[in-house]
Amino acid sequence: MLKKIKSHFKFNKRERSGIFFLLLTIIVLQVIYFTVKYQTPYENGGIVFVDSIQQATIDSLKLVSVQEDSIKIYPFNPNFITDYRGYTLGMAPIEIDRLHVFRETGSYVNSAIQFQGVTKISDSLLKVLSPFFRFPEWTQNQGNTPKANQNSVAYAKIATVRDLNSISAEDLKIINGIGDKLSTRIIKFRDRLGGFLINEQLYDVYGLKVEVADRALKRFQVLNRPQIKTIDINAASISEISELVYIPYKVADKIIEFREHNGRINSIDELKLIEGFPTDKLDRIALYLSF
Fold first, then answer.
1. What burial letters (b/e) apply to 60-95, b meaning 16+ CB within 10 Å?
2. Does residue 257 carry a pLDDT above 80?
3. Which of 91, 102, 111, 240 sits at 20 to 30 Å (Cα–Cα) from 265?
4. Measured between alpha carbons, how far is 209 from 207 in angstroms, rounded to an integer?
5. Considering the chain, what is the average pLDDT of its residues?
6. How far apart are CA 221 and CA 139, in angstroms?
7. d(CA 88, CA 77)
8. What is the mean pLDDT of residues 197-203?
9. β-strand pairing of 220-221 with 162-163
10. What is the pLDDT of residue 24?
11. What phi and psi, each to the nearest 5 degrees, are found at residue 44?
12. What are the tens digits of pLDDT across the range 37-81?
């Protein structure tokens, strides 16, 4: 029986050559298939050309990704977008860098169209983000101001915008909707943070309605960011981590446990794996951590 089986596997030299070339042909075809399949299309000098339909699809997927991460988008001034904030909004690194280079010249964008002109974001992404843009009121009224007086009026209005980190509870009461309790609560929240780093943190004050915060940010904004010492998430203790307003003690305990079981934490995204971690405040928390 064994001899009969072996006879099926005996080939002469010509048959062996044919089998070898057949296998070689199959391997070459497989290599060509996978090379063509995964090759980046439409490349020209390192630039990838994507049509408007493809870009709209990409932007919609970015938005879905943001929504899945449970990061709620609040109204914001796009002049103060950080690297991480831009990432969560679906902007490409090169688009964020263009904005930062523009801002380093001391200039500000004052409209959604100007923002697109500076960053070169796509029309579809601009359509998603622009409803959340909030610019100082004086920038929206420049077209109705006579040219002779435009600069003086603009500067006068700029002067009315005060630093959110230096005002008192009494100053806040000039805003319709903010009384004794809310003004005191805002100042206490600011003190716990060590100062506001971004305007959007005002929306985190308990009991402060979005429309009231919008009104407040027309008069008060973060003009001078405080110097803070970031928390080394790989070395900090439970009490040190829980000192951050956004992280409860129980979550800080789970961060330590996660660190002990999984080793070094290398990015903010890994913290989303921890049960109970406040992912809706991820962009705020990232400002206070180092890895």
1. eebbeebeeeebebbbbbbbbbeebbbbbbbbbeeb
2. yes
3. 91
4. 6
5. 81
6. 15
7. 15
8. 93
9. parallel
10. 87
11. -150, 100
12. 666 554 444 455 556 677 777 776 666 665 555 556 778 889 888
Alpha-carbon span 188 to 81, nearest angstrom: 25
Whether the Cβ atoms of residue 242 and residue 273 lie closer than 8 Å to each other:
no
CB 285 within 8 A of CB 278: yes
DSSP state of 202: G
0.90 surpassed by pTM: no
Distance CA 243, CA 249 (A): 8
What six digits make up the tokens of 36? 């063509």
3-state secondary structure 48-80: ECCCHHHHHHHHHHHHHHHHHCCCCCCCECHHH
What's the rounded Cα separation, in Å, for the pair 145 and 152? 10
Using DSSP's 3-state secondary structure scheme, residue 228 falls into coil
Instruction: For residue 130, give every residue at least 6 positions away whose Cβ sits within 8 Å of its Cβ, in sequence order, or none.
Output: 112, 115
Output Rg (C-alpha) for the chain, integer angstroms.
Answer: 28
Lowest mean per-residue pLDDT among 18-22, 150-154, 230-234: 150-154
Q: Where are the alpha helices (DSSP H) in the chain?
A: 2-7, 13-37, 52-68, 83-88, 93-104, 112-119, 123-129, 137-140, 147-160, 169-172, 180-193, 210-219, 238-242, 249-262, 282-285
